[in-house]
Write a structure and sequence with these properties.
Elements: E1 5-11, H1 19-35, E2 40-42, H2 56-60, H3 69-81, E3 84-93, E4 96-105, E5 108-114, E6 137-139, E7 142-146, H4 155-163, E8 168-172, H5 180-194, E9 197-201, E10 204-207, E11 210-213, E12 217-219, E13 225-228, E14 235-241, H6 243-247, E15 250-254, E16 258-261
Helix pairs in contact: 1-3
């Protein structure tokens, strides 16, 4: 059985605080991508809710438990499209809210990632930092890890998931102006340094004075860009990937003369300062 699969990243506008409209858009784009052969479709950060909340109370009004109506609807969409989806939303967990993305498929909810690194911006001013270790999940023939937006700025995030077996890392994001360097360079670097596929799905449009910069892209394990979008258009990016390529970390450029191994060449005993707290 072939391991190859087609993945898609949806670059879309999002209606602020209008879950019904956003879920309809998600369903439409999921169906469209599946009709073009996509087996896994990735949507932006907070695609269900919007992002630029100005208080905890306002954000919590758009949050819901993971097993709530939004996820149930997304599962139904996946079942109808016979595809997997990664979608950003706000999770309510008791008195706390989390910026999360969910992985769903035709058979139900498969995974949840709570954003760990929070900038001083929008929803993240009021969210609780993610409190679960980095994980990987199986979606058909590919093993994937999930990050959200600012997480791409911390290489430890991608490395932890790659070491756990991720062949693809997906990044639902809401990049505003000033984050162009992440779109142009960080995604490719995370792919190259871990020898994994990387898909960043950003949004476009404006929300409460913030403009979002698009530039979604899909990168292959050598760091090259497979597909990319512009700064303003709603579009869907597609790429065919082979997870077996990402599993092979031994790169032979000239046999016996130029060979590298992305994991075996690491020197963990030298990396102690990476996990030490910063002293003010």
């Amino acid at each position: 059985m072939s391991e190859q699969l087609t993945i898609a990243g949806v670059q879309m506008n999002v209606a602020f605080a209008d879950k019904e409209q956003n879920l309809k858009r998600i369903g439409d784009r999921l169906r469209e991508a599946a009709l073009h052969g996509a087996q896994l479709v990735v949507f932006p950060e907070c695609a269900v809710t919007g992002y630029c909340f100005e208080s905890f109370e306002e954000a919590r009004g758009m949050a819901e438990p993971i097993e709530g109506p939004a996820v149930r609807r997304i599962v139904e969409m996946c079942r109808a499209a016979d595809a997997f989806a990664v979608v950003g939303m706000i999770e309510e967990d008791g008195p706390r809210i989390f910026n999360v993305c969910v992985l769903t498929g035709p058979l139900g909810l498969l995974g949840v990632y709570r954003k760990i690194h929070l900038p001083h911006l929008g929803l993240d001013n009021f969210s609780t930092p993610g409190d679960r270790p980095f994980q990987v999940w199986k979606a058909g023939p590919v093993t994937l890890g999930m990050n959200i937006c600012y997480d791409v700025s911390f290489p430890e995030s991608s490395r932890a998931m790659a070491l756990a077996g991720a062949e693809l890392i997906v990044l639902p994001t809401n990049w505003p102006p000033g984050a162009g360097c992440l779109a142009c360079y960080a995604t490719n670097t995370r792919a190259m340094e871990n020898h994994v596929y990387y898909l960043a799905a950003n949004r476009v449009g404006e929300e409460r004075g913030f403009r979002f910069i698009g530039q979604s892209r899909i990168c292959e394990p050598n760091g090259e860009t497979i597909a990319s979008a512009d700064e303003t258009s709603e579009t869907i990016l597609y790429a065919e990937i082979n997870p077996a390529i990402a599993r092979n970390k031994h790169l032979v450029r000239v046999p016996g003369k130029h060979e590298i191994h992305r994991f075996r060449d690491r020197r963990p005993e030298m990396y102690g300062p990476l996990v030490e707290p910063v002293r003010d």
